[in-house]
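re: that chain from earlier
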Amino acid sequence: LIIFSSLLLSSLLPRTRCASVLDLGKIHRGQWKNKYWSNTGCLFHHAYPVGYKATKWHFNKLYTMWIEAGEYGPTFAVREEETNLVFRGESPTKPWTKVCLHKRLGTRISGPLHFGFSDPTTQAAIAQMYSESELQAALEGSRAWNEILSPQEKAAQEFMKIEGVGERTAMVLATTTSLGGTQHRDRDSLAKWAAEDGGAMLKVSSLPPSLFPVLCLLTRFSFLFTTKRFLLTSEEMPENVLLWPAWPARFVPRILSHLGCEN
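^ sequence. v structure.
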């Protein structure tokens, strides 16, 4: 790639057709790097640089847009300068959708277009920040994982092997401490937590041995209840997953079954 000078970049960025780019930001190379990239099926598969900032006029009002680092990926923000109202979301389109709903515009907006990501000039500028492997991912439309994964990233990849567990849910399962008080590296770790929790209850129990099967059953029910409640109601879970009708009806039972539970 031809390396642009900072002077050339500054002269190019304000001329994009979709938005006036004020700051390109920096490529996120920390944990969950893959979430800081657009979907592989997008027109341009690209990174979402943290600190990216742009402005756009829409219906005679000026809006400022930027990207922040979130817990599980980027947060996209749009501020209406006239009112100072800020709208946020997990994709470029979500905050702009909130703007439309708030203003009752009755229109649909392409977030990537409004943020400037549909403009080849912006894409050319962002591409100058890519490493060789990142450029390869952009050209091929493939995932841009870190070369060395963190324990949580490895765990998320393991949880994604469970039918019904998407990327965002896998990230939650890999980082939560709500299931047993510690993070779990994979499905076997969750199963081990259930077994050890049940074994501990048997050791401290003063019940006669003849009632141990009943206690085991109660322990398994407790594990099932805790895990199911987490998957269905936890604030850590993605909101769009919890609102998905098929999630409680089809996928939660499948996940519980895969974890060795009976629904």
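The first helix runs from residue 6 to 12.
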